[in-house]
Here is the input.
Amino acid sequence: MPFRSRETLERWLKEFHEQRGAGDLIRVLVQDGSEGSDTGLVIVPLANSSVSVFMEPVEIGDARWRITIEPQPDFTILSSFQMHALAAEFTVAAELCSFLEAKSVGHEEDDADES
Here is the structure.
């Protein structure tokens, strides 16, 4: 069954960072999929918010990705400068999601991807 391994996602993140010049704090964490496959979970840390943001494929083998923004218990109070910085962070997350979707179209994991 096609999926994106942690190694594949880390390679794609490196490519995104090199092309975009942003997203150097974005990481891939292990996320166990069906039958023990390592499907990876992309974490996007935000410097201007305590909110957790992560993205993952809609389902294994699907080229579409979704971004999840976890709720927070408290209000976030920002200056205009901090709000612009947070908006820039969300823009990078959206661009990364689009990049991962484009890379996922037609992608099939195989042993050659593991190198």
About this structure: Helices lie at 6-20, 80-104. The CA atoms of residues 3 and 67 lie 17 Å apart.
